[in-house]
Design brief:
The structure is a single chain. This protein is of the alpha+beta class. It folds into 2 domains: 213 residues, Beta-Lactamase (2-Layer Sandwich), CATH 3.30.450; 193 residues, Alpha-Beta Plaits (2-Layer Sandwich), CATH 3.30.70.1230. Strands 7, 8, 9, 10, 11, 12, 13 and 14 form an 8-stranded mixed sheet that branches. The chain has a 6-stranded antiparallel sheet with strand order 3-2-1-6-5-4, with helices on both faces. Helix 3 runs antiparallel to helix 5 and helix 11 runs antiparallel to helix 12. It is elongated and about 85 Å long. The N and C termini lie far apart (62 Å).
């Protein structure tokens, strides 16, 4: 939808009338110049800072604190400055950073469903309109606006949309404790710096969006490599790693019994039990494969034994969580999947595999194939956790009370290998 640029270039008549005839009051703590008398040079200095490398290198707290400090030095009666920036993330809709006169900056990630204020105000911001909320406005008594008014003892809050070139980046909130509110000169100064502030926030939003999307879909470590430019096919890194392959037993049967929506719900619940223990133990989930997943635990800074022990603990915790889930669901007469896990350790090649312009970051090599073969034996062996001999030795079998499951021939592997499971 095409934006109405006239709203962004001309002050709304209501705001002009609201502030006509108001005179700035000089506070005793005015930093350098009287409130309401910010000069063109002051605004130019703030604009230069917003576009500087120094500003781009700051985190969200640094940006809000630095801008608030400069606006106060320029003479604005500023007692609260907040930024709310949209994100593209499966758990959060945005991030808020709020500065108050004591110098503290509070950062809070907002979950989906969060709204800065009532729907009518939000719709105005979405259309690119500025919104003035005095203390006696009903909107000041609800939600995050109430928190801002109360925390900073504000008399007035001005909400400013940050409209990017292609989308709504977020919004800014400028608050003052003065009963008369902001003066037209002060608001003119704010208006002058808003385009540069919007650009600074848009750059941050794009960076955060890139990181969030890559973290969500390929994992943080892989995402870092992609952002660093590691995007060429056949560029592989050789490394030693513990491998974990998880799979839902008889997923096909469950899929035939349940509606599609129930299957999807069950998958999400299932992965909620498995993923956190892996991530908490330092594992990296490379991919979800229908009802299964592949994860690696890199053997780099930590000793081989410690890495494998952590992978084993993650597998045991995942199984314990699945057992708890099964008990709860059985009590409600709901179908419950069984989880099978294979653990192996070995040498793998990690990097880009695929067609010229469509790549996948993954691991390949004999160790990956062997882990897959081991997982397929779980059902046959009546075990939910099966590990290779090399993994069991590395994880210290005696300490973890592992038992031998006998020697087995893995498909595609010439020699038989001994497999292990938990004694309990």
């Amino acid at each position: 939808m095409e934006k109405d640029s006239s709203r962004l270039e001309t002050w709304p008549l209501q705001l002009t009338m609201l502030f006509m005839g108001l005179h700035a009051r000089v506070r005793s703590d005015s930093p350098q110049v009287p409130f309401g008398e910010a000069s063109s040079a002051d605004a130019d200095e703030i604009l230069e800072w917003l576009t500087s490398d120094e500003c781009q290198g700051l985190d969200d707290a640094g940006l809000v604190e630095g801008l608030a400090r400069r606006l106060r030095i320029a003479g604005l009666g500023l007692d609260c400055l907040g930024l709310h920036l949209h994100t593209l993330h499966p758990e959060t809709v945005g991030r808020s950073a709020v500065w108050s006169p004591d110098g503290r900056v509070e950062i809070q990630d907002r979950a989906h469903g969060f709204n800065i204020t009532d729907n009518s105000t939000w719709s105005l911001l979405d259309r690119g309109e500025w919104v003035v909320v005095p203390r006696d406005d009903p909107r000041a008594a609800a939600g995050v606006l109430h928190d801002l008014f109360t925390r900073c003892n504000l008399s007035e809050l001005v909400l400013v949309p940050l409209m990017g070139a292609f989308e709504h980046v977020g919004g800014a909130a400028f608050g003052t404790q003065r009963a008369a509110g902001f003066t037209p000169d002060e608001l003119a100064t704010v208006r002058r710096i808003v385009p540069a502030l919007r650009t600074a926030c848009e750059v941050r939003a794009v960076r955060r969006r890139e990181a969030n999307l890559l973290d969500t879909y390929v994992g943080s470590l892989t995402g870092q490599r992609i952002l660093a430019g590691d995007i060429r096919r056949a560029k592989l890194e050789s490394l030693d790693a513990a491998l974990m392959l998880c799979d839902m037993r008889d997923f096909t049967g469950l899929s035939d019994q349940l509606p599609e929506t129930r299957v999807l719900e069950l998958l999400n619940i299932y992965f909620d039990q498995i993923v956190p223990p892996i991530v908490d133990a330092g594992g990296e989930i490379l991919k979800f494969m229908g009802d299964g997943l592949l994860a690696i635990f890199r053997i780099e800074d930590r000793p081989r034994a410690e890495t494998c022990a952590m992978a084993l603990e993650a597998a045991k915790e995942a199984l314990a969580l699945m057992a708890g889930l099964a008990e709860t669901r059985r009590g409600r007469s709901l179908p419950t999947p069984d989880l099978d896990i294979a653990l192996h350790v070995g040498h793998v090649n990690y990097g880009n595999v695929g067609a010229d312009a469509r790549l996948d970051f993954t691991v390949i090599g004999p160790a990956v194939n062997e882990a897959s073969r081991i997982e397929r034996l779980c059902d046959e062996l009546g075990r939910h956790l099966v590990m290779s001999q090399s993994f069991a030795r590395a994880a210290d079998a005696s300490r973890h009370e592992l038992v031998s499951l006998g020697r087995h021939r893995l498909r595609g592997v010439r020699e038989e290998t001994e497999l292990f499971g938990l004694a309990s």
